[in-house]
Amino acid sequence: MAPARKPVIAGNWKMFKTASEGAALARELRPKVSMIHDVEIVVCPPFTTIPAVAQALAGSNVGVGGQNLHWEQHGAFTGEVSGPMLADAGCRWVVVGHSERRQLFGETDEGVHRKAKAALAAKLSPIVCVGETLAEREAGRTLEVVGRQIGGALGGLSDGEIAGLVVAYEPVWAIGTGKTATSAQAEEVHAAIRAQLAKSHGQKVSDGLRILYGGSVKPENVKELMAQPDVDGALVGGASLTADSFAAIVRYRG
Ligand code: 13P
């Protein structure tokens, strides 16, 4: 029997919320989810908003994450932020390889791998994102593309490193479009990711890996997605920007 995996529900605020807006959202969210202990809850604000949100959530059951990091600890990398800087600002998590970064900022599988390693070295849990475009899905290449992304990002990581990260499957065509993958579509890809990890790292590591789904997750569809055996959480964009909708997603068990 596979071990129970504690679900992770993470909000990716993307480029929304100033420090004061973010702190206000965090203060509103905090009491709405304070009774939930069987889900790991995370919010990922923009860099400049992180300290105010971390302060507003100090001592709560809501963790804070960054949305990106550089793979070096410090150096002449204008405009970049490192893992140790995020950790020092109050983060325990960081999103790595989001499709918006891959598509708009040229991130590669190799870069995602280096970032995941840097996050782990800084004691941050990377949320490693993968997902196919609409054209790739329509060409029947979903599992090939996601398999390549997983191999590129996680290949060569130790079993202990895999245990310290989570994967988020986010089909690009479902992000911000209101078009969620069906629970069966999500489950098919999640199961394929888990099977790939079983091959590369063994059954135990694979059984322990948490795989989140992202792409138009809403209070109305989260329950059905979470009912799938290989869906272990959600990475939420738009619906994480208001306390009521994000809290409703966190409280999906009702
Ligand atoms: P939406 O929930 O707005 O579709 O965004 C998903 C996402 O990209 C989370 O990282």
Shape field: globular
Q: Tell me the domain tally.
A: 1
Q: What fraction of residues sit in β-strands? A: 5-15%
| Structure ligands | 1,3-dihydroxyacetonephosphate
For the termini, the CA-CA separation is: 26 Å
Q: How much helix, percentage-wise, in residues?
A: 40-55%
What is the structural class? alpha/beta
Read across the widest sheet, the strand sequence of neighbours is 1-2-3-4-5-6-7-8
* CATH topology group: TIM Barrel
The CATH architecture classification is: Alpha-Beta Barrel
As an assembly, this protein is single chain
Please state the average pLDDT score.
Answer: 96
- Count, helices: 12
Structure at a glance:
The protein is of the alpha/beta class and 254 residues long. The protein has helices at residues 19-33, 50-56, 83-88, 99-104, 109-121, 134-138, 142-154, 159-163, 183-201, 203-208, 222-226, 243-250, and strands at 8-12, 40-44, 62-66, 93-96, 125-130, 166-169, 210-214, 233-236.
Description:
This protein has helices spanning 19-33, 50-56, 83-88, 99-104, 109-121, 134-138, 142-154, 159-163, 183-201, 203-208, 222-226, 243-250; strands at residues 8-12, 40-44, 62-66, 93-96, 125-130, 166-169, 210-214, 233-236. Helix content is 43%, strand content 15%. The chain is an alpha/beta fold and 254 residues long. Strand 2 (40-44), helix 2 (50-56) and strand 3 form a beta-alpha-beta unit. The chain has a single domain (8-250), classed as Aldolase class I (TIM Barrel). The protein has an 8-stranded parallel β-barrel, surrounded by 5 helices.
